[in-house]
Amino acid sequence: MGIVSEEEAIIELQELIDQVEEPLKTTLKNVHQGYLRETLIRFLKARDWNVRKAHTMLVECLRWRLDNQIDSILSKPIVPSELYRDVRDSQLIGMSGYTREGLPVFAIGVGLSTFDKASVHYYVQSHIQINEYRDRVLLPSVSKKNGRPITTCVKVLDMTGLKLSALSQIKLVTIISTIDDLNYPEKTNTYYVVNAPYVFSACWKVVKPLLQERTRKKVHVLSGCGKDELLKIMDFTSLPHFCRRGSSSGSSHHTQSVDCFSIDHPFHQQLYNYVKHHYETQGQAEPAKQGSFHVGFPEPVAERVEMAKTIESELQKFEKM
């Protein structure tokens, strides 16, 4: 069997996708936002440039979007606002700025997220909304501003507070990670891990070999809060709040900025107002109390299941020490 070049793989996958039924083509437009080639490349990378597997993955993603009404999720606010505040206080994620290359910088409080103030469905709904807002609003906007396609982001993972209680969160984190793996592949350019305690180092040592080489290369564990390394790719104003320790007095005026996890941060205010506005345009003045947006949970990919079991095993070892 001949080896297909990357360019040939892209062309072949596009020809296959051109043949899907119209509803799938419609939701595909929300996925690629005018950057179809970059989207095809992401799915090909996720399947090691195997066209058949990439085609299957993309079609299943599009069907998942249709089955779960993902195209309309940005018009379904989490209400009341107090519930959304609870979600934000326990699912720590935010956007702190952009790298100098224009990639959005997402901050994630891995160690201090508790996921204990709402049902799993609200956390999944919130996560997908952030993904969709990133892909359908932020990235197209920054691509236009920079005059080139920007279709990925960087993530800074804060491990502060990581402890044995993380065991209770593994199932939910695995669900969210699997949704990303299958439906938003290759959207993260680099993961930066900061404020890593010893328990993380021990888990990382055993999890790292389980990762695909492509994923492994994306993960960079930085010393301390990672400020010095991160300042090589972004300005101080784009650093997540937990990376600003030991700042010089010359930068002190920046330290008054709002915690990027907070519902009061501009990113979350803009996101929530965007979703609420799109709800109101449907003809209702105020979002009524409604149930959470239920999304079908895919079966976790084998790699994620293995990692979850390994992390659980390692954390239990610490519990016995």
UniProtKB/TrEMBL annotation:
Name used for this protein in its record: CRAL-TRIO domain-containing protein
What are the CRAL-TRIO domain coordinates in residue numbering? 80-240
- Where does the chain cross the membrane? none
InterPro entries from the UniProt entry: CRAL-TRIO_dom, CRAL-TRIO_dom_sf, CRAL/TRIO_N_dom, CRAL/TRIO_N_dom_sf
Q: Which organism is it from?
A: Eruca vesicaria subsp. sativa
